[in-house]
Amino acid sequence: MRKIVLLLASAVIITVTEAKEKKDPVVMTVADKDIQLSEFIFIAKKDNSVNLIDKKSVEKYVELFKNYKLKVADAEALTYNQAPKFEQELNRYKKQLQESYLQDKTSEDSAMYLIYNRMKVIPSFKHLVLLLPEENIVSKDTVATYNRMLEAYNRIMSGEPVDSVGLQITDYGKSQTGLYETVDCIYPLQMPKVLENRLYSMKPGELSMPIRSIYGFHILKLEELTPNPGKVRIAQILTAYPNKNPTEVEKAETLKKSEEIYKKAISGEDFAELAKQFSSDTTSGKNGGLLNYFGLCQMVKPFEETAFALKDTGDISKPIETRYGYHILKLIDKKPLAPFEELESQLYQDMENSDYNFDLSRGFVEKVKAKHNYKYYPEAYDELLALADDYFPADTGFYNRGIVMKKTLVTIDTLVFPQFEFVEYMSMRPLSAQKYSKDYLNELFAMFGRDIATEVERRSLEKNNPEYSMLVKEYYDGILLFEISNKRVWSRPVEEQEKLEAEWLKELNEKYPVKINWKVLKNLKKYL
After folding, report:
1. I need a labelling partner for 325 at 20 to 30 A (CA). Which of 64, 175, 333, 452 fits?
2. Residue range 199-239, pLDDT digits in tens
3. CA dihedral 189, 192, 195, 196 (to 10 degrees)
């Protein structure tokens, strides 16, 4: 990344030069420092009491603005702006401000809405997976596993039941290299992205071709899409079995106790008090049997089915059996899937911390690439992909061969990135969790493009976003103004502050030269 730092330094110089050439007259000079009209107007518009087309209002504001700049100049003269604390705070603000510019909220919302809409249905499916070796692998290591999975797919498509093929190919659960399961339900962001994308694109009854993930090759058969019923909150009274393997007699005795409690509950006795007195689940019992809200597939099946079957608040179920014993359930509340606005923050965090983070940034990156003439050379990339057939990209063998490859891989603006610079980037950024060599390479190349585009845009923020420079300058001045005002005035007794302020301003006006361009100020209308 040395090139991007060095070349973009010249881009910053160009930005500053162009800014000076723009028609932005000096409105004021304070302590020998010119202040452009654009800054004066930017700050003035933030004060609702200022009317820039009214002469008296402008004159009053000029005095306030001058005093404000004098105080900042005094803080600079006292080197407040060189304190480590000042630099840390300003840099922290710059970083936060840059992030607000280095994103595309519309595309982020679109990516999050895709996941949110998936939350409206809950898939159930058959899942067959043949695992690949845990170590980093190249193409030749996947051939045998893929062929086995393709054979299984063809058998199912020829009419064999998916259950029998799945169980057979995984040796009826005894194999260490495969798994066959029926998944009753799953929620978005709970499985590898490549599998989730395929699953949610399928129709009930459809069988997928073999899909490769970081774990191995998968076949999915979508069984059903159930509308998401939201969440329920119930209170329970558990009558637990005396041990993990109760006899039939013990089960009958447990049911009898639960039925006696049930009769008390439906006869009008207080459910919460009954839970406190009789429930074997003492944790919920002491809270009247209350459990937290839960959705589908978060409880054992009989418990869940009974809870969601209760229709009206206050309804009480007959005793139902689970492996724990017998439960009596009372419906406390039902609520549908929360609106997008309530889930947005958590969705963003979950996506940012997964392989969906590319979806969040894709819209922004595509716009920036278009703006800065990003170009990718597929022939040069294909040579790296071919190298990944023999070496895993994180291995020394790949680095030694790739570091001498000099074909142009990417250009953006006037910057040129040969193949070896991407190879060097990979050696510094081994961030991918992918185990298959080409998946690893593709993911790191996507990161490479995103990082380049983002850095170019970051370095050109001042040129492309005048407001950014203004906000940084405003914050810079604000920190200095606060520090010096606190020292000179605000830290003193309230009754002394007005006099101290007046004395300080008199001192500043005598200490620093001020020149005001009234010619420009009298013709503000033409600049607004």
Report:
1. 333
2. 999 999 999 999 999 999 999 999 999 999 999 999 999 99
3. 10
